[in-house]
Design a protein that fits this description.
The chain is an alpha/beta fold. The chain contains five helices and five strands.
Length: 127
């Protein structure tokens, strides 16, 4: 039987969630996210997203292809980011760990989702 993780001994959020920023064009920024997005790490994701809400970023691409778990706290951060007027949010997601929670909560049709970062960057430049 597996012993539950004690929150006091769990690794810090920075070790459970990795967020790397890249800039494919002058007005598009990509956040490549890997790990689990849950109650312990969703705040970190939200902070990284809000850091990118600056005037020169017209579009924020959230690459979730490296996410292995998406909890309700992560969904809340995505909804919050999608409602921000500072930049347009698009997602890159192909894995069940991300798409299933978005579908189950009815969020899937409300978001723009691409299969790859390249498709997302190309798609936002033509819109």
């Amino acid at each position: 039987m597996e012993t539950p993780t004690n929150p006091e001994t769990a690794p810090p959020a920075e070790q459970q969630l990795n967020v790397v920023v890249s800039r494919p064009t002058d007005d598009v920024v990509v956040l490549h996210v890997a790990g689990e997005i849950d109650l312990l790490t969703a705040n970190l994701l939200g902070e990284r997203v809000r850091e990118q809400f600056v005037p020169e970023n017209r579009v924020l691409v959230l690459d979730l292809t490296g996410v292995s778990f998406m909890g309700s706290s992560g969904l809340a951060e995505i909804v919050s980011a999608s409602q921000a007027e500072a930049a347009k949010l698009v997602l890159v997601a192909t894995n069940r760990a991300v798409l299933r929670p978005l579908e189950a909560t009815g969020l899937l049709p409300m978001l723009t989702i691409y299969d790859s970062v390249d498709d997302a960057v190309q798609g936002v430049q033509t819109s």
